[in-house]
Amino acid sequence: MTVTVPVSHKGKTHTVQVDLTSTVSSFQAQLKELTSVPIENQKLLFKGKNASAKSDDTLEIFGLTDRIKVQMLGSTAEEVGGLRAVEDERKQTEQTLRNREAQARTYSPSTRSRATTSNLSYRFHDIQSLAHLPNSGSARSFLTRLANDEAILHVMNLHKFSVGLLTELAPHEHPGLLGLNTNQGQSIKLRIRTDQYDGFRNFKDIRRVLCHELAHNVWGDHDNDFKELNSLLNREVAEYEFSLDRGTHKLVEGDFYDPELSGAGYALGGSPGASLPEFAREERRQRMLAAALNRLRTEEEEMEQSCGTTGPAKAAPVGTPTDTQ
């Protein structure tokens, strides 16, 4: 029996005619001709897939039917080489940043005391990536970075938030969702991957979604109570990072520069802020913090407009999810 199967790959849909009595490997060979993705790099996702099927099984055993939509993941050999180079560069950059932060904290006793006094009850007790998606190890590392983010742990400790599981949402399985909180913190799921599964979304964007989902530990509906808590969490994250600035982005003693939070320009070779008195430097820091918080408020409003949460979390029955679209 010949059927028509639409196969989506990196935003393009290929219409493939196949005989259900042919093998999985022959179907993958067709896809290789269409997309240049080697068979060993192909991963096929669709409802009804038989996970135990083998390459020499028929497509009928595999679970294909007429007109079923298939999402194919995978990169060409050339793309894999490029991705590896990008990943190696990313790892090197992250290691450099970690080394700098570790060196800065060596000279910051107050930062070390904050880390050692955090209540370990208020954290993410388990972290899981989705094993059926590509680069599961990298996804777990990304989630671990979120879970161990100092600003997030700071607000979780302040508000006594405990989350059982931090995991991810698959874009093709939940195309409208950015986050999901189930049972007031039993689990929080975040959409960390790009739509094409070729990388990860911006870390700080996802962290703002995480703050949104943490607020759902207390409130379900996006009422004034929720908005106040959500704004408070984002403000506390921003203020906490400003409190850690002076060891991470020092230019001169008592002054710092954060390229994400400041629109000011700096001339190379000079000593920006060196001649300013302390009260002027503090005033500038406060203006930068206020600007960051104003941007956060705007982003919170946009996030709430695409969130489908219903019902107050405090009264939610067991099994009721809280989600952010």
From TrEMBL:
Which Gene3D superfamilies is this protein grouped with? Phosphatidylinositol 3-kinase Catalytic Subunit, Chain A, domain 1
One Pfam family linked to the record: ubiquitin
Q: Where is this region: Disordered?
A: 89-116, 297-325
Instruction: Describe the location of the WLM domain by residue ranges.
Output: 115-297
Q: Which GO terms describe its molecular function?
A: proteasome binding
InterPro entries noted in UniProt: Ubiquitin-like_dom (IPR000626), Ubiquitin-like_domsf (IPR029071), WLM_dom (IPR013536)
Q: Where is the composition biased (Basic and acidic residues)?
A: 89-103
Domain of life per record = Eukaryota
Q: Where is the Ubiquitin-like domain?
A: 1-73
Compositionally biased region (Polar residues): 105-116
Q: Which SUPFAM superfamilies match?
A: Ubiquitin-like
What is this protein called in UniProt?
A: WLM domain-containing protein
